[in-house]
Amino acid sequence: MAAVDSKRQLKIKTGVVKRLSKELVMYEKEVTDGEAKLVQMKEKGQDEYDIKKYTEVVAESRAMVPDCRNRLKKAVQDLDILLEDTSLSEAEEYKAAQEIREAVTV
């Protein structure tokens, strides 16, 4: 029964790390794209209200990057703890978790 729980936890933590790493990439892309759009809006002389509101949107995305990075660090630490248990090293979930762990840098 404990092996089943460990496999399940490993699968869950692997999914969390995978999702958070994708989320971090998307927030970072959103910030760079938003900043480029802001520059375009200012160059075109668009309405000040629109620029101000879009600046708020970019600031919100920028604020999410450190939060997401911290959640990813915590999830990676949790996954590392589960990977220390080598009793599941033959399980597919363990191998998948190792692949994700090697792919994600914090």
What is the fold's blueprint, element by element?
Elements: H1 2-44, H2 48-83, H3 92-103
Helix pairs in contact: 1-2, 1-3, 2-3
Tell me, briefly, the overall form: rod-shaped
Share of β-strand residues: under 5%
- Contiguous uncertain segments of 5+ residues: none
What is the string of helix and strand elements? HHH
Number of strands: 0
Tally of contiguous helical segments: 3
How much helix is in the residues?
A: over 70%
Largest sheet: none
Radius of gyration: 20 Å
Q: Tell me the structural class.
A: mainly alpha
End-to-end Cα distance: 33 Å
Question: Tags for this entry?
Answer:
106 residues, single chain, 3 helices, mainly alpha
Description:
The protein has 106 residues and is an all-alpha fold. It contains three helices and no strands. It has helices at 2-44, 48-83, 92-103. The longest helix is centred in the N-terminal third of the chain and has 43 residues, at 2-44. The two termini are 33 Å apart.
Short description:
The protein has 106 residues and is mainly alpha-helical.
